[in-house]
Design goal:
Isopropylmalate Dehydrogenase; 327 residues; ten-stranded mixed β-sheet; 12 strands; 11 helices; 40% helix; 2 domains; alpha/beta
Length: 327
Amino acid sequence: MKHVLVIPGDGIGSEVITPTVEILSELVSSIDFEYASAGKALFEAEGFSISEGTIEAARKADAVLFGATETVYSSAYRSPVLDLRQKLDLFANVRIIRELRPNRKKVDFVIFRENTEGMYTRDEEQLPGEVITHRRISESACRRISEFSLSYCEEHGIGEIVCVHKANVLRLSDGLFVRIFREIASGYAEIESSDMLVDAAAMNIAMAPERFRAITTLNLYGDILSDLGAGLVGGLGFIPSANIGQMNAMFEPAHGSAPDIAGKGMANPFAAILSSAMMLDHIGFRKESEKLAEAVRSAVPGVEVDENGRCSTISAVDTVKRILFRS
């Protein structure tokens, strides 16, 4: 029996996570689900966005399935996602950018993002008339995200990877990242590796996304580039995401809580369902994972999605269920 901690969060978080758990419960009988709260609603009620008890429960679980939380622009508010990534040392963020809609341009690549350092350490210093943000890039973090991304490519038959950076300006920090990536990549002779400046990568993703199969990069760059990739394939409602460490893992749709559409039945559940498929694979249910992912791929063409990636949540979920359980 596997144990999964479910954190629906705010806004559309519960609207996409609840039916996802229903699908998982029907597909796999040997998963025990535990629920916990985090996010804006909890912060407003209790004064904290995630409890230490929830973080400990996440640490003990085989995986965490996370919905989305709404950002509160207050110095007292801490992002539950960032807290979980850092406290559970979930150093590798994996986002799959894949076109699922028919008759569209071929887009199919994965972004590996260092998940614990860079600008996301939230280390800022207020001085008179200015704020200084400290950006931390360590050799150990560069080494393990490089090793993880190359190992993933090897395991999944991906034959090329691009290291994205800005070492022409940030010569010490990004330079360290590139140097370590090249060193580790030299041990993967079957994988073609190269590097590219982040601004050039953004342009090439927009103009010729078919040239990419895998990208490994630092925290802020990966966050931005994955949203750019999402824009090519219909929006964040199609982008699944994994956060993986040595001992723990968390899976979440790449989108936010979308308070403007919460409660309207317009939340695209495909990213959440695909994230749960990644979770199944990670905790040892590869056959079920492949079956669920294929059901989503088959369902997407039959669901009407608007230009913002929104669709009828009920229709999308019912279509996946019909395809998945029709036999």
